[in-house]
């Protein structure tokens, strides 16, 4: 057995400290979600609850109509993830494999689009959606995030498809496959792990977005989970236990989604971009 060096122990200590810093906020949210306001006032935020109290969870659930907000977030995030992956794949196929003219400049343009802050998009998008009647519609948010996520996906997949084995493509062409058949029968199956990772990331990223849904979804019935939590936390009647309960309920759906697709995510990362 190899003897551990002092630097190994130092790295281990740093990893433990980092893990504690990550876990600490989740611990505070979890324990305070099941406390009553009186229990929180007497025992403080770090102690375990004396008795499980679901008052904060029930209060938040009823006040914001939580199932409706969860459905809005699932609907928006799911459609954005699927559309962004499909558009990214089509764009990357044309750029990386189709070898369109000005490929490098096009990829650079998509990179710059990812660097553009969302605050710069609010003013023009607000008036655009107002003029076409999409303001306060979930489709306005879906369109914006589909474009944003597809820009990143196109940038990533273009680099991946640019290194795609030419022998495979030439063999498919010799067998009489069209461009469309090459895409769906050759490129898509091989790059499926990468596309799966993008799908999961796009869903989680869209779920956690706050600024654009807050701006374009004015009606309470159209709001997403992060927006509902923030709006409720601005209420003067909001107590710490209800705030913790809202954060816990906001985390649970994405945690469930991650656990369901954890194996898919692991396969996609370990399999690499192209086999």
From TrEMBL:
ABC transmembrane type-1 domain mapped to chain residues: 70-261
Concerning InterPro entries, the annotation shows: MetI-like, MetI-like_sf
Q: Which CDD domains match?
A: TM_PBP2
Where found? Cell membrane
Instruction: Enumerate the transmembrane spans.
Output: 9-30, 70-93, 105-126, 138-161, 182-207, 240-261
Q: Which residues form a coiled coil?
A: none
Main localization (coarse): membrane
UniProt keyword terms in alphabetical order = Cell membrane, Membrane, Transmembrane, Transmembrane helix, Transport
Q: What's its membrane topology?
A: Multi-pass membrane protein
Family statement? Belongs to the binding-protein-dependent transport system permease family.
The entry's protein name is Carbohydrate ABC transporter permease
Source organism of this protein record:
Microbacterium algeriense
């Amino acid at each position: 057995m190899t003897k551990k060096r002092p630097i190994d122990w130092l790295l281990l200590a740093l990893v433990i400290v980092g893990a504690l810093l990550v876990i600490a906020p989740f611990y505070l949210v979890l324990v305070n979600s099941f406390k009553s306001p009186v229990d929180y006032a007497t025992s403080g935020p770090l102690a375990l609850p004396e008795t499980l109290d679901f008052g904060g969870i029930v209060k938040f659930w009823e006040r914001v109509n939580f199932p409706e907000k969860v459905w809005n977030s699932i609907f928006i995030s799911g459609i954005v993830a699927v559309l962004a992956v499909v558009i990214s794949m089509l764009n990357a196929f044309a750029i990386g494999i189709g070898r369109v003219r000005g490929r490098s400049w096009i990829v650079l343009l998509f990179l710059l689009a990812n660097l553009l802050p969302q605050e710069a998009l609010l003013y023009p998008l607000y008036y655009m959606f107002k003029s076409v009647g999409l303001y306060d519609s979930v489709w306005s948010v879906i369109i914006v995030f589909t474009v944003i996520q597809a820009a990143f996906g196109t940038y990533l997949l273009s680099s991946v498809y640019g290194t795609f084995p030419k022998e495979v493509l030439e063999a498919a062409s010799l067998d009489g496959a069209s461009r469309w058949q090459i895409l769906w029968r050759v490129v898509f199956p091989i790059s499926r792990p990468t596309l799966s990772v993008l799908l999961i990331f796009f869903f989680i990223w869209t779920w956690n977005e706050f600024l654009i849904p807050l701006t374009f979804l004015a009606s309470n019935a159209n709001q997403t989970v992060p927006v509902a939590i923030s709006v409720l936390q601005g209420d003067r009647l909001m107590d710490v236990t209800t705030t913790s309960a809202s954060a816990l309920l906001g985390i649970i759906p994405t945690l469930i989604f991650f656990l369901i697709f954890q194996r898919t995510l692991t396969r996609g990362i370990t399999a690499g971009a192209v086999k």
